[in-house]
Amino acid sequence: MEENKQLYILAGYDDASEEILAGFQNILYAQGFVGTHTKNIPMHITLGSFPTDREEALKALLQSLSEEIDSFEVTFNHLGIFNGARVLFAGPDINDDLLVLKEKCSDSFHWTPHTTLLIDEPDVIFRAVPYVLHKFKPFVGRINSLHLYEFFPTRHIMSVTLRDTVLSGKVREMAQEEIPECVEVIRESFQTVADEFGFTPENAPRFTAFATDERRLWYQLLMEKRPMYVYSHHGKIVGYYSLALSEDGCAELNNLAVLPEFRHRGIGAKLLKDCFTRVRILGRRKLKIGIVEENEVLRKWYESFGFVHTGTVKFDFFPFTCGYMEKDLI
């Protein structure tokens, strides 16, 4: 038995992500699917396995990573089955942050990032799938910890927390005197999109990065009566969005923006969740948004929050295709 022991580095989640993933597993437990997987350990992604004589080196590695690596978001878009149909899992999309963390922990190849929900015989897995599939919806989680375990028997060796980059600011209504600052936030934020896709004032003069100015926001606020909201951190506006309210009972999300240097800290998610709440309070049943269709990363991000793609339109004055998405809020 001793010769079969291994050490494992596991990436762990924040409380909200843990609750969602454990919730899927609890659905299976409630239906009598017990499985043969290890119980009473955090939901996780396995980053690597190692011989037991590496324990001290791995403890030093985890401590080093806790001082070097920021917590980060991962998007769960799918369920999967592998290992001869003996493992049912929830799978995150691979992003740069996850790959960097994996490479720092282990140089092994043949890696499928996943969080195990059930391990059992194939016939049991196939019977279990519908119960989770019925409840599963894409969501954005956050990896914020690393754990070192020994198996088997199970021995917890240590856990560390990754650096917390989620800012402590808040979303609030915009004050009129903040319009100039909001203009700069919008223009700087959308400029990165323009740079990525080659938009310029010459080929896309109506694109948000070039067409937004103080007069435009004043018109939207005073004439179109658009509610406007900002994310403020230590007195500095670093995020923004506005709403266009239509007569058909829907709302349109406009210009959701986060300054480039403040991205990947959960601000976009906070703005979007705040938007959902405010739209519901306003009595609107559906939220719509238009995006650059070619921006697949952004489209997948909105899909992770429950938006559904509804179509595209190509305008002569844009060198890109406009994509449209919506989310039911009732």
Structural features, described:
The protein has nine helices and 14 strands. It has helices at residues 15-30, 55-68, 96-105, 122-135, 179-197, 208-211, 214-222, 267-281, 296-303, and strands at 6-13, 44-50, 72-82, 87-92, 115-119, 139-151, 155-161, 170-173, 228-233, 236-245, 250-258, 286-292, 308-314, 321-328. Helices cover 33% and strands 33% of the residues. It has two domains: 2-161, Cyclic Phosphodiesterase, Chain: A, CATH 3.90.1140; 170-328, 3-Layer(aba) Sandwich (Aminopeptidase). It is globular. The protein is an alpha+beta fold and 330 residues long.
The coarse overall form would be globular
CATH superfamily of the largest domain: Cyclic phosphodiesterase
Helical proportion, percent range? 25-40%
Beta-strand segment tally? 14
- Low-pLDDT stretches are none
The largest pleated sheet is described as: 7 strands, antiparallel
Secondary structure category: alpha+beta
Layout of strands and helices, then pairs:
Layout: E1 6-13, H1 15-30, E2 44-50, H2 55-68, E3 72-82, E4 87-92, H3 96-105, E5 115-119, H4 122-135, E6 139-151, E7 155-161, E8 170-173, H5 179-197, H6 208-211, H7 214-222, E9 228-233, E10 236-245, E11 250-258, H8 267-281, E12 286-292, H9 296-303, E13 308-314, E14 321-328
Parallel strand pairs: 11-12
Antiparallel strand pairs: 1-2, 1-6, 3-4, 3-6, 4-5, 6-7, 8-9, 9-10, 10-11, 12-14, 13-14
